[in-house]
């Protein structure tokens, strides 16, 4: 638990809640130490605090993985610079007025200069020049270039965020956060371009202050206080160099921290982790360096011992890296595990084989999942899940992707709760070409069948894409083929995928804004399980349950009189009729229907029986077969005309008739006249009857 998250300490909470006040008082205190004379003891404490704070900032930048984690740095740079200058003013006042400035400055001066003040002065100048010329100038230039590139790249990044949002790979909240982060990043680099000037000015001020302290101290104490010039030079040489070092060492740490923070790109690891991972990524490089060091050590005139020592050390590092890479897990397996985790978090992992929905892929299809190889299957599945939610109104749980070495070449397998429901074959480095209007495709490739709709197709080389498009063929990539197949499987089996927990979440989402209907319906009139069965009935016939408010209000209206799930489903279908029919209209906004002969309708109506699974017509098997043959004949006639149609049945027999034909014709919709709005044009394109008389 971090310092800020420690809720057990009331003192900590008081400090955290008043940090804005403390920060304001701290800045006012910096102004105060410039004006108010400080005793040497207080100055010592503030100088040590300055060193401590600079070390914290320096080490913090080593562990920072993103500039946004330290976006306050430009303002912090100004405050620390002002603090150092305030300490310089206080120390100058003490040096020139009392001829001493506390134990910290004296200790720094004595440790660095020793008995030679010229050496101390040179060391001080070198530190200032390193800070002024090398680090600060470089950091300022990097910040300037980064600010320009960030601003230039903002429109493209904004478009990328919008594209991800439209594709469904991110939510509205995630898109909003990414836009805010993008703006903060641009503001950071723009601000750092100017903030680096603070450090540069601080270095110049440090040199000027040291010169003033040295010359002013000698002049004041030799002319006014009777000290000899040699004594004044010795005393003020020690004090000015100590004062300069005490101020410039923290300034150097801050300058280095500035450079590290600006030059680092966003990553998932700290500087040390990234350095180790990238510097020692190839054992061969370290081995070659070891050999070169050994060779240099054998050259006459060169000191052999240090070269041999470093050769042995680098050889040992190379050997350890070689063993680690040899015995470690394969990189591709790590990527598969990363992608599995992203789509199905560990917290949602269930017993093997019992996931709601999972995909198994052969070893050849691993590149579809591997991000570094350009695979985007995981992202496309996330977008497809979002699309299913918008179309069908149900949220599909995260889909686990596994590699299965038992699968055939280029094969994938789709499972629902551990059971195989579909499989297909795709070629990851080719494109699928189809011609919906013809069974023959005039292009060289590997003949196949499109797995989702069973259309004849050909796998072609990517170089043939332009030729295929010129001939008017449909060209899709292998990931799209798999996603399309998966989407069709989900639609066909959506009634199996919706659980009571899913229903509860849907009901809870409605309750947030329409609590009255939920409280009236559940559990007073219907249980959650009964609502689930009604939703399953709708989804079985591919009716979207997105309009949950209408569904629940309809159930609340009719559940008072009946608890028959099948009948309640028909009432809901009547209320959803507009959205049901719209999916079956042709280009002229007409509904093509295949009607049932009145005698057939009477026969079915007289023989409807109820069962646990619902109602069904108990008729002679021969009559049943003849009905299916007539339906098949009508559907073929429509297909020859390039049309699609639905079967129109009386409301009383609609569910029973649908259950009778769904095994033979699972994709043929059966609707009742009650479900068709008055403004929809109906065209009868066929009739199902027992004989031709």
Radius of gyration, in angstroms, nearest whole number:
39 Å
Average pLDDT over all residues: 79
Form type: elongated
Query: Number of DSSP helices?
Result: 25
* Main β-sheet, spatial strand arrangement: 2-1-3-4
Helix percent reads: 55-70%
| Main beta-sheet annotation | 4 strands, mixed
Question: Which class do the helix and strand fractions yield?
Answer: alpha/beta
Contiguous runs where pLDDT drops below 50 for at least 5 residues: 1-9, 328-353
Number of strands: 14
Distance between the termini: 84 Å
Q: Beta fraction of the residues?
A: 5-15%
Q: In the residues, how many domains can be counted?
A: 6
Subcellular location: Cell membrane
Membrane topology: Multi-pass membrane protein
Keywords: Bacterial flagellum biogenesis, Bacterial flagellum protein export, Cell membrane, Cell projection, Cilium, Flagellum, Membrane, Protein transport, Transmembrane, Transmembrane helix, Transport
Function: Required for formation of the rod structure of the flagellar apparatus. Together with FliI and FliH, may constitute the export apparatus of flagellin.
Task: Considering the chains and any ligands shown, give keywords for the structure.
693 residues; alpha/beta; 6 domains; four-stranded mixed beta sheet; four-stranded antiparallel beta sheet; 25 helices; 14 strands; elongated; disordered N terminus; FHIPEP_4; membrane; transport; transmembrane helix; Flagellar biosynthesis protein FlhA
Task: Describe this protein's structure.
Strands 2-1-3-4 form a four-stranded mixed β-sheet. A four-stranded antiparallel β-sheet has the order 6-7-5-8. Strands 13-12-9-14 form a four-stranded parallel β-sheet. It is of the alpha/beta class. It has six domains: 1-36, no CATH class; 40-273; 280-327; 334-494, 3-Layer(aba) Sandwich (Glutaredoxin), CATH 3.40.30.60; 498-575, FHIPEP family, domain 3 (Helicase, Ruva Protein, domain 3); 584-688, Rossmann fold, CATH 3.40.50.12790. The protein is elongated and about 135 Å long. Helix content is 61%, strand content 9%. It has 25 helices and 14 strands. The N and C termini lie far apart (84 Å). α6 packs antiparallel against α7 (172-223), α7 (172-223) runs antiparallel to α8 and α17 (500-511) crosses α18 (515-521). β1 (357-361), α13 (377-392) and β2 form a beta-alpha-beta unit. It has helices at 10-17, 19-35, 40-63, 73-98, 103-113, 117-167, 172-223, 229-263, 271-279, 283-297, 304-327, 331-343, 377-392, 465-470, 478-492, 494-497, 500-511, 515-521, 528-540, 548-558, 565-575, 577-582, 598-606, 621-640, 654-661; strands at 357-361, 400-403, 411-416, 419-425, 431-434, 446-449, 456-460, 474-476, 590-596, 608-609, 616-617, 646-649, 670-672, 681-688.
């Amino acid at each position: 638990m971090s310092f800020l998250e420690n809720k057990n300490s009331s003192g900590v909470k008081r400090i955290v809640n008043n940090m804005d006040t403390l920060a304001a008082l701290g800045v006012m205190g910096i102004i105060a130490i410039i004006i108010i004379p400080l005793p040497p003891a207080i100055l010592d404490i503030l100088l040590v605090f300055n060193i401590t704070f600079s070390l914290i900032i320096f080490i913090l930048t080593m562990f920072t993985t993103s500039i946004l984690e330290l976006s306050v740095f430009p303002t912090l740079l100004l405050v620390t610079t002002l603090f150092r200058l305030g300490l310089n003013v206080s120390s100058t006042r003490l040096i020139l007025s009392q001829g001493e400035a506390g134990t910290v400055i004296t200790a720094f001066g004595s440790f660095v200069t020793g008995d030679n003040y010229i050496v101390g002065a040179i060391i001080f100048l070198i530190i200032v020049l390193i800070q002024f010329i090398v680090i600060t100038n470089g950091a300022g230039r990097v910040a300037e270039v980064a600010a320009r590139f960030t601003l230039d790249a903002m429109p493209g990044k904004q478009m990328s965020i919008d594209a991800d949002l439209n594709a469904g790979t991110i939510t509205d909240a995630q898109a909003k956060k990414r836009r805010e982060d993008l703006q903060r990043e641009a503001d950071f680099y723009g601000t750092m371009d100017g903030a680096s000037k603070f450090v540069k000015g601080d270095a110049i001020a440090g040199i000027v202050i040291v010169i003033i302290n040295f010359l002013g101290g000698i002049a004041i104490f030799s002319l006014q206080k009777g000290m000899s010039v040699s004594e004044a030079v010795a005393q003020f040489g020690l004090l000015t160099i100590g004062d300069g070092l005490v101020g410039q060492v923290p300034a150097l740490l801050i300058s280095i921290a500035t450079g590290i923070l600006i030059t680092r790109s966003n990553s998932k690891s700290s500087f040390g982790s990234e350095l180790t991972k990238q510097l020692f990524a190839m054992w061969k490089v370290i081995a070659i360096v070891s050999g070169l060091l050994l060779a240099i050590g054998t050259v006459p005139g060169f000191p052999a011992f240090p070269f041999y020592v470093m050769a042995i050390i680098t050889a040992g590092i190379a050997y350890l890296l070689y063993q680690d890479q040899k015995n470690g897990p394969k990189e591709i397996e790590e990527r598969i595990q990363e992608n599995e985790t992203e789509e199905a978090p560990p917290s949602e992992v269930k017993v093997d084989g019992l996931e709601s929905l999972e995909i198994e892929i052969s070893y050849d299809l691993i590149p579809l999942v591997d991000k570094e190889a350009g695979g985007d299957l995981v992202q496309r599945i996330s977008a497809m899940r979002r699309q299913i939610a918008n179309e069908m109104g149900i949220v599909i749980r995260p889909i686990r992707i596994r590699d299965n070495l038992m699968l055939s070449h280029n094969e994938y397998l789709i499972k629902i709760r551990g059971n195989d429901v579909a499989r297909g074959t795709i070629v990851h480095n080719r494109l699928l070409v189809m011609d919906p209007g013809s069974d023959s495709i005039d292009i060289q490739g590997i003949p196949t069948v499109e797995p989702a709709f069973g259309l004849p197709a050909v796998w072609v080389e990517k170089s043939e894409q332009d030729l295929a498009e010129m001939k008017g063929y449909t060209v899709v990539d292998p990931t799209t083929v798999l996603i399309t197949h998966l989407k069709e499987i989900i639609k066909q089996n959506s009634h199996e995928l919706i659980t009571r927990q899913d229903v509860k979440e849907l009901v809870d989402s409605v309750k947030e804004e329409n609590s009255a209907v939920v409280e009236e319906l559940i559990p007073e009139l219907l249980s959650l399980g009964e609502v689930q069965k009604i939703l399953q009935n709708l989804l079985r016939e591919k009716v979207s349950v997105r309009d949950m408010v209408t569904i629940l209000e309809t159930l609340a209206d009719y559940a008072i009189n009946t608890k028959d799930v099948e009948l309640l489903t028909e009432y809901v279908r009547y209320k959803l009729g507009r959205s049901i029919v719209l999916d079956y209209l042709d280009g002229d906004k007409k509904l093509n229907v295949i009607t049932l002969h009145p005698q057939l309708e009477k026969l079915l109506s007289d023989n409807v029986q109820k069962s646990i699974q619902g109602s069904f017509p108990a008729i002679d098997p021969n009559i049943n077969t003849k009905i299916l043959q007539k339906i098949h004949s009508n559907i073929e006639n429509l297909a020859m005309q390039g049309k699609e149609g639905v079967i129109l049945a009386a409301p009383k027999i609609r569910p029973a008739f649908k259950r009778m034909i769904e095994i033979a014709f699972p994709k043929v919709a059966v609707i009742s006249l009650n479900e068709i709005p008055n403004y929809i044009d109906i065209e009868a394109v066929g009739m199902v009857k027992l004989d031709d008389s």
